[in-house]
Design goal:
Two copies of one chain form a homodimer.
Chain A lengths: L2 H12 L14 E2 L10 E6 L12 E16 L7 H9 L4 E11 L5 H19 L6 E8 L6 H13 L6 H7 L8 E9 L2 E10 L14 E6 L5 H14 L15 E6 L13 H23 L7 E9 L2 H13 L1 H8 L6 H8 L11 E4 L2 E5 L2 E2 L4 H8 L3 E7 L5 E8 L3 H7 L5
Parallel strand pairs in A: 4-5, 8-9, 10-14
Antiparallel strand pairs in A: 1-6, 2-3, 3-4, 3-9, 6-7, 7-8, 10-15, 11-12, 11-14, 12-13
Helix pairs in contact in A: 3-4, 6-7, 8-10
């Protein structure tokens, strides 16, 4: 699988959507190198032993040669891992230079030791890199409630720092995976005021994923050599997250550890991007597109998923209403079970639209599966069972809901709910 | 299985809960006869053919010899079946005398024909019973989006009316089942001002069940011979639903057809119960207890469920907070998968409490599984894996969360999420 190539193809296809999802038509030039594609960024990843049962990588490092403007978006869960709490503290100054992350253990609900361990990760990484602790962000992902084997991590940090390179992004992307089957890595080059500027990102997430009110819900680390003013960086991140990670759902559960971190070192030499400028729009659209690629990769990699489902909602009174309907359908266990079984039970889609909280008039709503109209005028459109079965049997399914009461739209992305998802999640710890 | 006897035993046990769920300790005298236990009520049920693939009963009738005060609670889904819309219209006058219900087809999203069919059900039943159409309530449950075979129903109504008897409640309870494995039928006798008064109820529901902001989410038909003033009847119904059906969840999906209907014919001869009186409290507590019995039966009968789970939350700042936490845990797919797999992953319980929207301080929260404390002071309590596995392997699991920040409590009831649930719901229509 070549995720980047596949997603390029898909981006082109999804532009054919009946409704726009707010992301502009893709003109992005994708490049290799992931988080190390932007000038001045290095990355590495290795196996330190937190993943005790395998030799898979479980520790990652991202480093900028110069101090960056840094912003983050974090889970809104009241139960937050120590890394989330510490990063919020570190980012109050708006600066950062490195990110260290482990997989295999979320270091959450681990008491005071958990906080000491997260601090030790940041401090030790800072010492190895010659960076002060508050300029290092920390992330952990994996099982909740188990003490972190901090000794393994601390001992491995010198080798991790030693291993930093411009070719290290893939290792870093591997080092943050948990139940993911594929890495999530992407980078693009755009032109800002005549200067070539790059944005790179790695992400992880295949379960315990659910968007929640403008906040992130998985790990994503983003680097850019663009010079971006702090407020513009904040605004670009929030907008991009809102259009991408907040519009996917896998299982409706919101994690304790989720975060998106964005470091901008300005080494591309462009005139600093300020909020509201033409350059800001170019930058934030590119960021949103990259995030949407990663978000879709997460859904495609969803635990136990056999199908990828795009839900486009149009004709809504407001954007918020369109998002509610799209997310309600994307989150419905019954819709997701029907998708798994290729059962053309479109009534469940209508029901999920109805309980979304948005303004819905069942007499004006139309539902399409692929290009086939299945509901209008408050009732089903007569179809042969065979033709409906054929549509629902596809691996990529596009559900379109035209609410018929306004002009706003939104898209959400989800997967089916399979017996395999239940099996995986009924024995995650064991 | 004798649900009533089992639930009596369980009621006694659940009184041992660490936190009260608001329902007073049971002193209810349960009686047989279901909806026909109260004086003046008759019921019947038969197979008319809407369930085409079996000979199971699919049409039910409940009738009072005299006109009743009548109230209902309905789904808040914006996509509502025609029966819901019509009942709201009929109940504007506050009176009713009969309920006709079919299973096998929800008659929802069936266009104008759907409304005509629901009207035909009410009208034909009214003619057979000598009751005006607006005093007949209608209900349908089953698959959405398929035209109702109204001819089968209309043709069967004379026999259905003919079959009405004081022994007909069980047939009526059978006639409203869809994927349910057991009937849900209960009745009790209480004393109001020296008069013996009865309340009877039948219900159905084993999937597409999720509580939603003070509104009902399945079918439940309730009869009483108590004389209850209209406002008192309304208040008693709302309070009882809030403590019972609104605190259970099976799959998080809210139906288009759900309703609770309550008919009171006053034939017990008690002095009319008015809101706020001592008699009102006795009556509404009894109603709440009966509803909780039915609600628990629904959870025990949940599609594919292998476990019954009670979640008691205490130490909350407000009752609303306690309900949020209890329902968030009860609704978490990841918690429910862990329960299915008997995987002692209590971190997921803490995470679900954290994203509930309630005030939660992770350092003050305690979590118990059965009597075993597993979380305190922000971290796990050291336990042998064998002892944790033993607790999670039980069929009846009691999770207690002490938020440690206040004095309010609430209980919710749920089941596990099994591979069998997914299998059933991936091929419901076929």
């Amino acid at each position: 699988m070549n995720p980047v190539r596949d997603m390029k193809k898909e981006n082109k296809e999804s532009n054919k959507s009946r409704f726009s999802n707010g992301v502009k038509k893709s003109t992005l030039k994708l490049v290799s190198g992931g988080v190390a594609a932007p000038t001045g960024f290095l990355a590495s990843g290795l196996h330190c032993g937190v993943k005790a049962k395998s030799k898979k990588k479980d520790l990652s490092l991202i480093y900028s040669e110069t101090l960056c403007n840094a912003v983050g978006v974090f889970t809104t869960n009241k139960v937050q891992a120590s890394c989330v709490v510490i990063n919020k503290e570190h980012l109050k100054g708006g600066k950062g230079q490195a990110i260290i992350a482990n997989s295999g253990n979320a270091n959450c609900m681990t008491g005071k030791k958990g906080f000491a361990d997260s601090h030790a990760m940041a401090k030790t990484a800072g010492e190895a890199l010659g960076v002060s602790e508050e300029h290092v962000c920390v992330a952990s992902t994996g099982v909740i409630g188990q003490p972190l084997q901090i000794g393994l991590i601390v001992n491995a940090i010198p080798a991790l720092a030693e291993g930093l390179s411009t070719a290290g992004s893939t290792d870093a992307a591997l080092g943050i995976l948990t139940t993911d089957r594929t890495i999530k890595e992407v980078a693009a080059e755009i032109v800002i005021g005549g200067k070539k500027v790059r944005i790179g990102a790695i992400a992880k997430g295949a379960g315990m994923i659910h968007p929640q009110m403008g906040h992130a819900t998985m790990l994503c680390f983003v680097t850019t050599d663009a010079a971006v003013a702090p407020k513009a960086l904040r605004a670009a991140l929030d907008e991009a997250v809102g259009q991408s990670f907040n519009m996917i759902t896998i299982d409706g559960d919101m994690s304790t550890n989720d975060m998106v971190l964005l470091l901008g070192n300005g080494m591309a030499g462009n005139k600093t991007i300020t909020k509201g400028s033409k350059e800001f729009i170019v930058f934030s659209n590119a960021l949103a597109e990259l995030f949407l690629i990663l978000a879709k990769l997460m859904v495609r990699d969803a635990e136990g998923a056999t199908k990828f489902v795009e839900i486009s909602v149009g004709g809504a009174k407001t954007s918020a209403d369109a998002q509610k309907v799209a997310r309600s359908i994307a989150s419905s266990n019954l819709v997701k079970c029907a998708l798994f079984g290729s059962d053309p039970n479109w009534g469940r889609i209508a029901a999920a639209a109805g309980y979304s909280g948005a303004y819905v008039d069942p007499w004006k709503m139309k539902i399409y599966i692929g290009k086939e109209l299945v509901l209008k005028n408050g009732g089903g459109v007569s179809k042969s069972p065979a033709s409906l079965d054929r549509i629902f049997a596809k691996k990529d399914i596009h559900i379109t809901v035209d609410l018929g009461v306004g002009k706003s739209g939104a898209s959400a992305y989800t997967c089916d709910l399979s017996t395999s998802y239940v099996e995986k999640n009924s024995a995650y710890r064991t």
